[in-house]
Amino acid sequence: MKIVLASNNPGKLAELQAMLAPLGVELLPQGALGVGEAEEPHCTFVENALAKARFAAQHTGLPALADDAGLCVAAFGGLPGVQTAYYATQFGYAKGDANNVRALLEQMRGITDRRAALVSTLVAVRSPQDPEPLIAVGRAAGEITEAPRGSHGFGFDPVMYLPELGQTFAELPPEVKNAHSHRGQAARQMMQLLRERWLAG
């Protein structure tokens, strides 16, 4: 079965491709099929992921899978949320992982409540009008460190500390990170949903 991935992020494609391979699913990046980026005007992960999946399905005629993910900080009322990728730009920095981490640590200086969660929402649709999208949500809860630690991963991994593991995501080997990460959790749920709803029979 071919499914278009509503993303051109090579890291995301590789992670999801590896996880979905056992199902016999071939994941095709939307860029390879000439599909541009969908608008993401919504304030929740699920609405943006659904918009991206419907857009990709509409432009390719294939079932589509989309992911919307971000960091939700308790002290900021759950923000930056869907604006995570652009977080640093609010504070005059260029867009990018290192600047996002720098801006976050600056904004959290002096804040004692450092609880945060990385959230990943995967949405799959059979067609643009699919009335029953598959929705899987993964959530990795932890705390924001005072300074970056570790060299693996990307995004906020160097400052996302997981108390049960005693390390940040960036300090964990990739296979351990994937077993505990928000995207890993969501992908495992999505595999189960695809198996039960689309591939059964």
Automatic annotation (TrEMBL):
Keyword Coiled coil: no
Cofactor(s) needed by this chain: Mg(2+)
CDD domains xref list: HAM1
Top-level EC class as recorded in UniProt: hydrolase
Pfam families: Ham1p_like (PF01725)
Oligomer and partners: Homodimer.
Protein name as catalogued: dITP/XTP pyrophosphatase
Lineage: Bacteria, Pseudomonadati, Pseudomonadota, Betaproteobacteria, Burkholderiales
